[in-house]
Write a structure and sequence with these properties.
Transcription Regulator spoIIAA; 7 strands; globular
Length: about 140
């Protein structure tokens, strides 16, 4: 399934579940994950494992994580991301994660906490209010 992001750029939806939609944008060598609702650790692990496999397969350096439909991240999910997943994707070559934040202040707070606690060598994480600003930063 193909969808469009900015400037008529085509992305290929490769995983579509009730909790996440993962797409790959070949022209930008970018992986996008749109997270939805309240996430269980199982949901996050499945989605992140799929994203990691795409990063490895396509030698992806940039990732857009869309949290506009996300609710609060549990402590278990926060721990998985900060203690395991960020270092895992950094090891396979990811260099930048741009997060488009939700309007829900509690979701923003948990995402911000996760990003501050991430201690990863060459991986930079930043948060944005819009997809446009996030994509611009990712492509710098």
């Amino acid at each position: 399934m193909k969808t469009q992001i900015l400037d008529n750029t085509v992305s290929n939806v490769l995983m579509k579940e009730s909790y996440v939609e993962v797409s790959y944008v070949p022209s930008l060598n970018l992986v996008i994950a749109k997270w939805i609702g309240f996430l269980t650790i199982e949901d996050v692990t499945k989605g992140c494992t799929f994203v990691t496999s795409l990063i490895r397969k396509h030698n992806i350096k940039i990732h857009l994580s869309d949290h506009r439909q996300l609710k609060v991240l549990s402590k278990e999910v926060q721990g998985y991301l900060t203690m395991q997943w960020f270092s895992e994707v950094e090891r396979v070559g990811l260099r930048k994660i741009g997060v488009v934040v939700a309007e829900d202040i509690f979701a923003v707070a948990t995402v911000s906490k996760v990003n501050k606690e991430a201690k990863v060598g060459n991986l930079t994480i930043d948060m944005f209010q819009s997809e446009e600003a996030c994509l611009a930063w990712l492509q710098e």
